[in-house]
Every structure is written in structure tokens, then in C-alpha cells.
Batch of 2 targets.
Target 1
Amino acid sequence: MNNDTLDYKEPITKIYFIRHGETKANKERLLFGQLDLDLNKTGIKEAKHLAKKLSKIKVDIIISSPLQRAKHTADIIVKSLVGAGLAPAQKIVLEKDLMEKSEGLWEGKSYWEARKENPKGYKHWLKDPFRNSPPKGESVADLDKRVKRFYKKVLKRYSGKNIIVVCHSGPIRLFVLHLLRASINKFWYLKAEHCSITEVHLSKKHAMVWSVNRV
């Protein structure tokens, strides 16, 4: 895509979206949206590797989902960047709108367990997860509302800044779909690996997904 797509007469906000490192639940392929698990050994290793990869990026602010797996990843990145003089020594901004989609009563369960426990509800959710949610959980559409709210907040508060945002696969995918003006039905067409970097450039009128990198 040509650089002229963005209006460089306006302040350009650069966001480096980072998905947290691996957890035990990721490895076991569980439904665990807002279940507050920390990184496992592999996740910590991934985060440290990522911190080195970010060593050439000067950052104004670091924002994170408050869930442990994202916050721990952000802490490792901050320590590295502050030590290298590439980020201000300030607290990480915690943003609830960046939390992963809640899986409600299915949190911590396998897909098989969720289906066995609630076959009818599971069938509806599987048919249209964009508008149907797990029991007492969120649909993709519910999460999309939070992501759009965060998008507006970024443009208002952090215009022209370089920002690292550490969160989860769901919010990252929806943010990119929102920028591309694509339907949330394309949610499963995108993927964000653990500790991957999705770089986005924004002006008031335009947006560009600059690159997607895997650690």
C-alpha cells in the first residue's frame, strides 16, 4: 500500500498491537477469555524475545489489558524499553476495553466440555458466535463495541503518539477489521500469534495496517 494513503499533514498515531505470550490454557486449547491466568514458561520466553525485537522502537505510552497474561507481557517489554531509554519510566495504562471476550460459564473448559454441558447453547453459539454468546458471556459483537470505544479513545487522547498496546487475539482482530471497514463475520479470517506485532498507522481520516510480524 502506498504511503500517500495517509494524510501526513495530520498527526500520525502509530500503534504496535501485541498479543500476550502463551499460557497453560492456550497450550491446552481451553475456552478461557477473561479467566485471569499468568504466562507459562514458554510465554515468558516469548515476551523476552519480543522485548528484544522492539529494541529499536521509541514509545510514548504503553497500554495493556488488565488480565495477568497481558500485563506480565507488558511488564517485560516496559523493563526492556525503559532500560534502553526508548520509553518513559511511567506506569502501564490499564484498559478494561482491551480484555478478551468473556466466555461466561464456559471459562476454563474445553470445547468438548462446553458442548457436553450445554449442547443447545453450544450449537447456537457455533452457528453464529458473532451475535450469540456463551451462557453469561459475550458475543463477538459485544467485544466489537468495546474495541470501537477504545479506538475512539485512542484518537482523542493519544493523537500523534507512538503506542504499544498489549492485549489479546480477539481485540486485535476486531480493531484491524474495523480499520478495514470489514464485517465482524471475517473475524476468523485473521490470526494473531502469541507475542506477534500488528502495526497500525492512523490519521483522523485514514488508517493503514502497516505490517504483521511473528516473533
Note: The longest helix spans residues 140-157.
Target 2
Amino acid sequence: MSTKWKVVELDVCESTFNVARKEQPWTIVCADRQLKGRGRFNRSWFGEHGGLWATYNLPLAPNSGRHWGLLPLVAGVAIIKALAPYKIKGLRLRWPNDVLVGRDKLAGILVERPSSGMASIGIGINVFNDVDSIAAVTTDHPTRLNDLLYTCPSVSKLRGIIADALAETFQIFVDKGLEALHDDLVAAWGTSLPVVAITDTERHTGHFIGVEADGSPILSRADGTRITIPGITVNRLKELI
């Protein structure tokens, strides 16, 4: 792992976000157990022993023109890149912040901005933790890395692999924008799937075919037309499979 990262390791905490917000950029806060982890829309995230529960702090330049709200997509690309050497069949992204294997959830991403100069990227990956015990109470059926690989990396090694991939992908985003990651995003989505995009007032159905430069999802509809749904209005992009 690059020496630019400082690592804060905890046995247990309520949320790595709560600790990370008091740290500086290029700090990783990780915990063996997370008691009150959270996902998008304050959904609970189970953080038991054996998983990677970490928050990665990244610097934000206020005048860079890069919107921190796109960082879930940047982090998703980084995770896919980090795991690519393991050749996991069915590994893919689901807009905007989930990493799946087929239809099973391997990892989740949540981004917060504790200050104008820093973004905190929370990443939770099922590695060795007991996923059978949470399968009945999660929205998506969980899977874990240890069941997908003949030789699974340790949690600490995985943390470092993710850190280096995140630093590299983040720098591309800062230097060139999300457009420079377009091909990686297209590859990460996998097969185009039928979805429904749910906002506070509408439901849009079609095939998810990618994102605009601002990260908003693009759907191809049955009549052959395309529609872009502003990403900030989408509560959930639900796959109809």
C-alpha cells in the first residue's frame, strides 16, 4: 500500500465515519467490528468480525470543478479494478454504490463530506464474515469474497489493494473528470439490464445503459427513446431481474 495513507485500526466502533471525520485526508479508519454502520438513506449495514469495514478520506479542492457526489462511481470503479486480478465471474457495479456478483451483494459504498476540503468514502466488503446470519434481514442476498476465491486475501491486504486502486482512480477523476473513467464504468456495469428508477414522484422503466458526465443514469425505453434521470433525484435504481 502506498505510504501516502495513514491507517487507524480499531477493534470496535459505532461507525468508521464518526472517527474518520476527525482525521485528515489520506487517512483510512478501519474497524474489526462496526456496531452502527450505515448505508445509503441511513439503511443499516452489518459490520461483524471478518469483513472490511473502512472509511477512506480523500482531499477535495474547492475550485477543482469535480463534484464529490460522483465519488461513489469513482470508488466503484476502484473496487472493480482492485478485484479484477482475481477474475471473479459476474463481478459488476449497480448504480450508484453497490458491488455485486451476479445478483448477490459483495460490497457497498457510501460517501459523505465532513468538510469542504475532504470527502469520506465508506467501503464495506464481505470477506470472511458470517453472511448466512444476515441473509434474512438484508435487501440483497449477500455473498463474501472467501466463498468466491480459492485463496482469499486477508482483510488487511484487501484494505491496501483497495487503497491503492482508489488513490489511482481518484487522481484520474481529479485530473480529467468522470469522462476519463467512462470506459471503465461501461465495463463495470456488465450486461444491460431492465431497471426501474424510482424518484420521489416518478418511476421510470427501461434498460440501464450507462451514465452522463454528471453521473446521472441513462435508460433506454421500450419505444427506442432514451431518458436521463437526474442522479440527485433517484432514490433507488431497482433491477427487474
Note: The CA atoms of residues 58 and 167 lie 8 Å apart.
